[in-house]
């Protein structure tokens, strides 16, 4: 009896624990750096909530024969198995859409807050789908060592993995026949890749934020202390340019509680994302 249920289990429960860990690291980083939660954090949490709903829904769906050939589903006729699959598909496709929506809004909110002084808010508002390109341009203008620029770009381009999963969904969807009498089996490859994508987008919302928690776990030191001690050394090695393209920290609010000030300092002075 052919079954894709092991693939479904692997796709979901390899990536979902990773998404959980990254969200915990995100929240821990906020606590360590004493930065209050903002819209990017709230939408990341909502993204994870929908991912949890997906993780709960998928095994329930599989208990009703999803991943098996319709003729192999016990206790149901082929028609009943296909009808049940369509009902679960209706529910889970809404979870999929909301997960991607929350992830995109979280990332865009993060860009909005971090690059508040970089004159790209209009670009973020109008060109939502092109926002990542604007971020890369701004990273190129940062006065950082090349390795640190590469590290920042790598974090932002983690979204490529999400795009790969999305392309895989499109590819396998072209082979799906919505009039098939074996939907319980033929739809499974689409849901496998959708499960991967749902959890990867959750990870992508947390990646730029988790550095303080990772630094704390690896060195058992307060990242804010490390930041203060490294600031003067960086300024000696990489003095700020006086060109009009530079990002001036003087435009940032001086209040210690200003999350924009802390975020921009962490990127510009240390050359690493939070």
TrEMBL record:
This protein's GO CC annotations: membrane
Membrane spanning stretches: 7-27, 42-61, 95-112, 118-137, 149-170
Domain of life where this protein originates: Eukaryota
Domain Rhodopsin: 25-137, 138-213
Pfam families registered for this protein in UniProt: Fung_rhodopsin (PF20684)
Cellular localisation: Membrane
Membrane topology according to the record: Multi-pass membrane protein
Residues annotated as signal peptide: none
Keywords linked to the UniProt accession: Membrane, Transmembrane, Transmembrane helix
Keyword Coiled coil recorded: no
InterPro entries: Rhodopsin_dom_fungi, SAT4-like
Cross-referenced PANTHER family: INTEGRAL MEMBRANE PROTEIN-RELATED, PTH11-LIKE INTEGRAL MEMBRANE PROTEIN (AFU_ORTHOLOGUE AFUA_5G11245)
Family membership noted in the UniProt record: Belongs to the SAT4 family.
Protein name: Rhodopsin domain-containing protein
């Amino acid at each position: 009896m052919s079954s894709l249920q092991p693939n479904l289990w692997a796709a979901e429960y390899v990536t979902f624990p990773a998404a959980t860990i990254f969200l915990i690291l995100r929240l821990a980083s906020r606590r360590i750096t004493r930065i209050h939660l903002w819209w990017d954090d709230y939408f990341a949490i909502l993204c994870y909530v929908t991912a949890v709903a997906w993780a709960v829904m998928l095994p329930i769906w599989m208990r009703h024969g999803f991943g098996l050939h319709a003729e192999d589903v016990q206790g149901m006729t082929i028609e009943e198995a296909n009808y049940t699959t369509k009902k679960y598909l209706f529910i889970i496709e809404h979870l999929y859409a909301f997960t991607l929506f929350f992830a995109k809004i979280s990332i865009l909110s993060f860009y909005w807050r971090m690059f508040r002084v970089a004159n790209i808010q209009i670009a973020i508002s109008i060109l939502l789908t092109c926002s990542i390109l604007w971020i890369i341009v701004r990273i190129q203008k940062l006065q950082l060592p090349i390795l640190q620029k590469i590290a920042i770009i790598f974090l932002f381009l983690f979204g490529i993995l999400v795009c790969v999963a999305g392309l895989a969904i499109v590819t396998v969807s072209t082979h799906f026949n919505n009039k098939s009498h074996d939907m319980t089996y033929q739809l499974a490859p689409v849901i496998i890749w959708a499960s991967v994508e749902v959890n990867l987008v959750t990870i992508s919302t947390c990646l730029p934020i988790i550095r303080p928690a990772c630094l704390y776990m690896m060195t058992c030191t307060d990242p804010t202390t490390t930041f203060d001690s490294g600031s003067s050394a960086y300024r000696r090695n990489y003095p700020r340019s006086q060109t009009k393209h530079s990002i001036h920290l003087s435009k940032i609010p001086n209040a210690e509680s200003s999350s924009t000030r802390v975020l921009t300092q962490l990127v510009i002075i240390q050359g690493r994302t939070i």
